[in-house]
Amino acid sequence: GENVEQHPSTLSVQEGDSAVIKCTYSDSASNYFPWYKQELGKRPQLIIDIRSNVGEKKDQRIAVTLNKTAKHFSLHITETQPEDSAVYFCAASKVTGGGNKLTFGTGTQLKVEL
Amino acid sequence: DSGVTQTPKHLITATGQRVTLRCSPRSGDLSVYWYQQSLDQGLQFLIHYYNGEERAKGNILERFSAQQFPDLHSELNLSSLELGDSALYFCASSAHSGTGGAGYTEAFFGQGTRLTVV
User: Fold this and answer.
1) DSSP B9
2) Which residues of B touch A (CB under 8 A)?
3) B33: confidence class by pLDDT, cuts 50, 70, 90
4) Contact between B42 and A89 using a beta-carbon 8 Å cutoff
């Protein structure tokens, strides 16, 4: 089955700096790569996703890049703010007509310091 | 609000007991997924139901079972509970993805049920 590795496990940045989180996946058939943000005790919330036919996607301060050949994808957050502090999870899945089972990375605790 | 409803929010029970967690997906979503989140294991996929049928199983123990009813709500049954079963249990739903890929829609998570086994 799919295996997703995520690095780093913790990341501390100064407000205004950029943050980068990296993930690798094992199943070359995976075609969907979402990123979730989870605040303490709350549900994971999708912040951005990318499909395998796209190399990069951007949404305001957040961007995701995908390298299918190397089987890795990254989350980039620019101009970080204190409210960006949370745990971020990457995930990979092979979307089929019946649904989408997500395999998650182990999470990155991002702390944005003033 | 994601539109996915999970009940109860909190559950405290004793070892050896059985509990049922309930999930109502977003209106129109045919797929329901269950995930377990514990401190040392992260988010682990348990099981996927699509329009009442089991579609995929992950790291789900034999003591655990699930079903999806005709009205599309789902229940996760946990029996012979052990201390190690204490975790956050999330349900997520997504719409039918058609042929896959281009037709895909995201998975929306409920607020979770925090299970504490004492």
Assistant:
1) S
2) 2, 30-31, 33, 35, 42-45, 48, 50, 55-56, 58, 90, 92, 94, 96-102, 104, 106-112, 114
3) very high
4) yes
